[in-house]
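Why show two proteins at once? Because comparison is the fastest way to build intuition. When a single record is shown, students tend to memorize it. When two are placed side by side, the eye starts asking what differs. So, the first record is below.
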Amino acid sequence: MKHLSFKEFEKENIFGKGDLNEAYAKYFVGNSYLNPLTNPKETSVFLANVTFEPGCRNNWHIHHAKKGGGQILICTAGEGWYQEENKKPVSLHAGMVITIPPEIKHWHGAKKDSWFSHIAIEVPGESTSNEWCEPVSDEKYNKLEENENE
């Protein structure tokens, strides 16, 4: 369900918005918020609720790993997008699960007219790292929204 109003969105966002994601702001277009759900000092699996304001998306990026690794997204509220390089975009809504293998260039974020949240799970692995790439251009992002309404 699309939510342009944060007040309405907040009712569905059961894991909470969290704080402004300032540490990674340079890898996002728009504002994102981070609410850690696990403490990396207490478990090998890090989970966080990531909330995107309408139109916010992260840059293209790749989760590297020699073994294991990757990321899992559990969509919890609002509507968003997920896209792998050279593939069609996937429209996201609450209840969807996206499994992202290591070494796949991709991006994810909110739709232009909706707040969006997902739980991000970093899959443990050997020699894991994250490579941030170029932003998703406004031109390409806006075409996704235009094509969805056709």
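Second record. Ask yourself what differs from the first in the token line.
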Amino acid sequence: MAEKLFSSEDKERIVAAVKQAELNTSGEIRVHIENHCPEELMDRAAYLFEKLKMHKTELRNGVLFYLAVKDHQFAILGDAGINAVVEDDFWECIKEKMTEYFKQSDFAGGLECGILRAGEKLKSHFPYQSDDVNELPDEISFGK
């Protein structure tokens, strides 16, 4: 099971990164990890995005970090509100940085780096508001 690939410290680091990133932005960040991607990568990410109800955020500013560890695949999927305002290579730049960590089998470090970068970059378009409500859980969701 994918959950066993991460130590409790790794999981805590990833959740802490989500919480830290969400202090910069009203955007909502989720992480889903599984061993294998059972379909085309972006189709799977889109399916999970909907299953995790990420499209239900008020500003349509959810971000999913999806990782299929044993298949060596990952995707970052942003909702329509984000994709309408960020530059075309926004997600690709974050993925490149994460890949540097993944090549060293540092999956927690790669996720942490990507999550924090996303939060930092999103704050100009979706700044944190004092009345911000955490619309989605910060915990990691795991598949098979």
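One difference worth noting in the second protein: Residues 5 and 69 are 9 Å apart (CA to CA).
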